[in-house]
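Lab notebook, bench 4. Continuing the backlog of folding jobs that were queued last week. Each job is logged with the same field layout so the records can be merged later without manual cleanup. Today's entry covers DUF4974 domain-containing protein, a 298-residue chain. Filled in by technician R.K.

JOB TYPE: sequence-to-structure
TARGET: DUF4974 domain-containing protein
LENGTH: 298
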Amino acid sequence: MEKKFKEILKHYLTGKSTPLQDKVIEDFIYNMQTTNKSSNDLITDQKLKQKIRLSILKKIQPRVRKKRKYVFLKSAFVVLLIGLSISAIVNYSQQPLNYTTYLESKTITLSDGSFVELYPHSSLEVNKQYNKQNRSLSLKGKAFFKVTPNKELAFLVKGQRLTTKVLGTSFLLDEQSQQNSVKVTTGKVEVATQNQRVVLTKDQSVYLYSDGLFKYSADNQIISSTSDALLMNKASYQLWSTTLEKEFKVKIQTNKAFVKQLRITADYRDSKLIDILDSFCFIHNLSYSIKNNIITIN
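JOB STATUS: finished
OUTPUT FIELD FOLLOWS
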């Protein structure tokens, strides 16, 4: 009974109720007004709420009734519905919007004009203050976002492990695959975990591994972070090699004794490994080879 009752109220609020359902509910509101019953009476009186449910459900039957017209304020009816509703639909109109997909994708246009393609087996929650006080979303699964620019309100997507913040761009957030990732199509985004932040631009991506976030270029090469550890000033070869090994998940080796005595001054932030190696070897008249993530400097 409560399920049917909730369904009727929900349909009325969203404009999906039948003319007969509209008529019964509006008749009931009129009676409430003429008997001076308030919404507070409904909230506190459980027997009265049950009687109301039974009355409305009983009347919604396929039959012809003489039309009557009553004038009432719709805002007052919203207050009344809040009183009638059980806890699952209290403040229904102020609850976050929720979207869930199963076997097929769903296309969603948000109130600011932003576009979301929600992939299968995913869910999206839109904050109830969206496009008013914030542009915050929560995602479980995978979705593509094309964001309408708004310099005042950043677009924020909170995944289960990744948080993506943008002002206006398009990107794909995937937490369904083995490695969670964000891929940027246009614009600029900031992706963060509890311990790391990475900024991506067009055609760049970031993947979350067990040892942190790793940024990739369009040609699928790792790009170093913006850590101050990569801003080197007379750094030893040992520090240089171990820092790059951690950044790029590689092993660096050399059999040249003089290389191990070198001091390196350079800014390797936000750079590809191949660019770093090319620069290093050019300056010191060296060469290198890469095999199975092992770099040998000759």
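OBSERVATION: DSSP finds seven helices and 20 strands in the chain.
SIGNED: R.K.
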